[in-house]
């Protein structure tokens, strides 16, 4: 068809109203920056699966005629410069109205100043270092902080063990875990007998766990970012016979992340963690979430805290779109997020602290046990009810 004929046809179709019924009145463009390839791809892939599952099942939560368009970019790992360049491209060229994703702290920190300069709201799906939300008033976090899990775990651990060794990945989230656990543990009377910071990207944790074993602690507190690293650190713990030597292994839920449990065999049985989500939780909202996940994705990869991070952040994004009838204003979006609440997330009740724009949620003490022939993170008790980020609470008091 010649261009003029095509234009004439389109013009008459529009005049007849044939196009308006199917063409959405409003499209909200959302920029997604996450880790979709490389050794940490599990984070972006799981956030993405949660986000897309939410979108598929909740189309009716958008106002009539409003459409959401995702513009997805892969930062390929802890690459602050790349994340910043991608955010610039999404804001300037792609004209996105909201930014989301952000699996890895270093990347979220690199993009934070841009959200303030360009006034683009950012909804964090995973990145968990406490400081991120203080770096711009246009950031809200729908995931977790590592202080939320590691600080109460330190307090709990001191009631069971006297001597602890700390082994963490050497980047900001690992440093947060180290500080939070040490504070909780020593405040409650425990002693830290040694520490090691491990490279962020490694699959061999044996040298570090050997150092931990040599220090003869009662317990090792470990943190690595979730994914294959979790399976590898659990493997080192098992290979070195640390469990048989009577040394317990504990940490935030990242070390026994649900989707990796099938790769770990029976080694993690008895590992205790604190976290905000377990795929094994029997809350009705979680049972429905896990069933929907299985129906959509089969048994290839299970539901995880990263899946829930993508799901919950997208619920908050849909809420902001709904309240503004598809016309996104940055300041109004932040006001809406500051007052966001969901009593029925798969992880339990969640809300955003309006003062800090950080998530408020329960923290559960869990143990890896066999349930129906498979290992699972079994929630035993709530160790932190409606927990705010302790790092911000402690610094506020200073
Ligand atoms: C990050 C934090 C985590 O707890 C995790 O499992 C993976 C990544 C982060 O903030 O970089």
State the end-to-end CA separation. 72 Å
Radius of gyration: 22 Å
Structural class: alpha/beta
If you average the pLDDT, what whole number results?
94
Helix content: 40-55%
Secondary-structure element order, as H and E? HEHEHEHEEHEHEHEHEHEHHHEEEEH
Number of helices: 13
Instruction: List low-pLDDT spans.
Output: 1-21
Structural commentary:
The chain is of the alpha/beta class. Helices cover 40% and strands 24% of the residues. The strands form two sheets. Strands 6, 7, 8, 9, 10, 11, 12, 13 and 14 form a nine-stranded mixed beta sheet that branches. α2 (41-57) crosses α11 (305-323) and α5 packs parallel to α6. Residues 1-21 have low confidence and may be disordered. The structure holds 3,4-dihydroxybenzoic acid. The site of 3,4-dihydroxybenzoic acid (DHB) has 13 residues, from loops.
Concise structural overview:
The protein is an alpha/beta fold. The chain has helices at residues 3-15, 41-57, 80-93, 105-117, 146-158, 172-187, 206-214, 228-239, 261-264, 284-297, 305-323, 330-338, 390-397, and strands spanning 26-34, 66-74, 98-101, 122-124, 139-141, 163-169, 191-198, 219-223, 248-252, 272-275, 341-345, 348-353, 358-371, 374-387. The site of 3,4-dihydroxybenzoic acid has 13 residues, from loops.
């Amino acid at each position: 068809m010649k261009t003029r004929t095509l234009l004439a046809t389109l013009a008459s179709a529009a005049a007849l109203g044939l196009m308006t019924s199917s063409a959405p009145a409003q499209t909200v463009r959302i920029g997604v920056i996450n880790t979709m390839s490389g050794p940490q791809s599990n984070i972006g892939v799981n956030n993405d699966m949660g986000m897309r599952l939410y979108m598929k099942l909740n189309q009716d939560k958008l106002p009539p005629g409003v459409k959401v368009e995702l513009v997805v970019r892969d930062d390929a790992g802890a690459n602050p410069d790349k994340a910043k360049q991608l955010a610039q491209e999404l804001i300037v060229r792609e004209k996105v109205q909201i930014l989301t994703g952000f699996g890895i702290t270093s990347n979220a920190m690199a993009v934070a100043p841009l959200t303030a300069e360009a006034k683009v709201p950012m909804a964090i799906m995973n990145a968990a270092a406490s400081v991120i939300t203080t770096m711009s008033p246009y950031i809200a976090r729908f995931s977790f902080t590592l202080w939320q899990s590691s600080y109460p775990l330190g307090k709990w651990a001191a009631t069971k063990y006297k001597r602890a060794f700390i082994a963490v990945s050497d980047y900001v989230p690992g440093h947060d875990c180290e500080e939070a656990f040490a504070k909780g543990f020593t405040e409650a009377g425990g002693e830290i007998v040694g520490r090691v910071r491990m490279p962020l990207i490694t699959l061999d944790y044996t040298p570090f766990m050997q150092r931990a074993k040599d220090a003869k602690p009662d317990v090792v507190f470990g943190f690595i970012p979730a994914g294959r690293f979790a399976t590898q650190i659990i493997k080192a713990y098992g290979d070195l016979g640390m469990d048989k030597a009577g040394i317990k292994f504990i940490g935030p839920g990242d070390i026994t992340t649900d989707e990796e449990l099938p790769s770990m065999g029976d080694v993690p049985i008895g590992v205790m963690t604190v976290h905000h989500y377990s795929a094994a939780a029997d809350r009705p909202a979680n049972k429905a979430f896990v069933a929907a996940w299985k129906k959509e994705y089969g048994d290839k990869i299970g539901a995880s805290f990263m899946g829930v991070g993508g799901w919950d952040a997208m619920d908050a994004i849909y809420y902001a779109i709904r309240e503004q009838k598809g016309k996104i204003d940055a300041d109004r979006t932040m006001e809406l997020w500051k007052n966001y609440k969901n009593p029925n997330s798969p992880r339990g009740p969640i809300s955003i602290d309006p003062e800090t724009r950080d998530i408020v949620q329960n923290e559960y003490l869990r143990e890896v046990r066999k349930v129906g022939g498979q290992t699972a993170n079994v929630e035993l008790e709530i160790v932190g009810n409606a927990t705010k980020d302790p790092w911000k609470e402690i610094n506020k008091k200073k």
